[in-house]
Amino acid sequence: MTLRLGTRGSPLALAQAELAARALTAHGVEPEVVVISTRGDEAATAPLGELGPGAFASALEEALAAGEVDIAVHSAKDLTGDEDEGLPVVGCLERADPRDAWCGGARTLAEVPQGARVGTSSLRRTASLVHLRPDLEIVPIRGNVQTRLNRRATDRLDAVVLAACGLDRLGLAGEIGFRFDAQDLLPESGQGAIALQTRVGEEHVAARSCHRETTDAVHAERLVTRALGGGCRVPVAAHAHRDADGWRLTGWVASPDGSRVVRETVEGSDPIGIHDVLVDRLLVAGAEAILEAGRA
Hints:
The structure is a single chain. This protein is of the alpha/beta class and 296 residues long. It has 3 domains: 2-94 and 193-210, D-Maltodextrin-Binding Protein, domain 2, CATH 3.40.190; 100-179, Periplasmic binding protein-like II (D-Maltodextrin-Binding Protein, domain 2); 225-295, Porphobilinogen deaminase, C-terminal domain (Double Stranded RNA Binding Domain), CATH 3.30.160.40. It is 34% helix and 23% strand. α9 (212-228) runs parallel beside α10. It is globular and about 55 Å long.
């Protein structure tokens, strides 16, 4: 059986499509990779906040709906909008390292010099970094992984902050000075996971390649961030982690300047079943005021 896999054309997206292809091949599928250009790729220098939701996913979903591809391969963190009932996200491959990585000379955040210039285009990373270290100067940067790494030199940056999983998948782990503890810099919802999306009624083939624990975790994270909103104007994040004692689901909301941060964690046997408890706790703890200020 031959199936067309829709993907973005960046080196990282192609590496992730190859991982999906290998997983599907193990179940008798002959995958064919089809590159789709997205709005986010075409506006490579525009700030992420100006692109709106779906910048990296909508074009793949449109190609899937039109029958141009059979499975869309996404970075799960790009799936920020509401799910189309006709285009279900079947699940995710097993998650890689979800943490963020400091790509620069320091080996811990304490080693980072005062006033260091740090490149990132992420509202979440910006708010987290300035909350942890108000002295840091944040420089907005866009582009693929290698482009952002190169800008350390061209823009005289002390570091750039990227997803550790992307660096690992591209063989660039040597660029990492240190990986942030998820307790210090909560990962993006879905970070580290590769999601597979199909047309309704065609889920069975992709489902065989999905990892149940990762799928449940990402589903819970997406439920939290969708319930909270924010995204383009207010940074929000959620991360589910399972250990020997069960599931821990953490949510985070911050003002864009990092001056106000709300973070809560809920524990339970099922991350999906406790997501609404987490959302309620965050709103009561102050997230609602932050979100309302961002919408004003």
